[in-house]
Recover the amino acids of this structure.
């Protein structure tokens, strides 16, 4: 079965620690992770024209591209322990509320959580 591939900012402490927690919860290994800092050497270099440092991106197992809130929702749906938590995120119009909230957090994450000088790839 093909995995979902999530692109995260390896210089962002919030992103890095969220990834580490989600990896522990993902015992079925449905999600792979790649730092946006490594995208140039990958088959996904075509994504570099997107706002990869502003939003989290995912290429799903069915080759659909998700970004921002939609990526978070898909990740939570794919992980067995968080699937139930993801269900309300599929309600009609919830993305109209949560996408702006996601963008607000993303825009302020360096101010609130700092920034690693060296990307954290593990």
């Amino acid at each position: 079965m093909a995995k979902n591939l999530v692109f995260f900012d390896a210089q962002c402490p919030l992103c890095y620690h969220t990834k580490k927690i989600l990896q522990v919860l993902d015992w079925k290994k449905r999600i792979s992770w790649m730092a946006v800092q490594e995208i140039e050497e990958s088959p996904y270099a075509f994504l570099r024209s997107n706002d990869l440092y502003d939003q989290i991106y995912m290429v799903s197992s069915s080759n659909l591209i998700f970004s921002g809130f939609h990526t978070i929702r898909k990740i939570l749906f794919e992980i067995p322990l968080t699937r139930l938590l993801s269900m309300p995120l599929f309600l009609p119009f919830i993305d109209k509320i949560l996408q702006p909230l996601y963008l607000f957090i993303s825009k302020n994450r360096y101010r609130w959580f700092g920034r690693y000088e060296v990307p954290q790839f593990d």
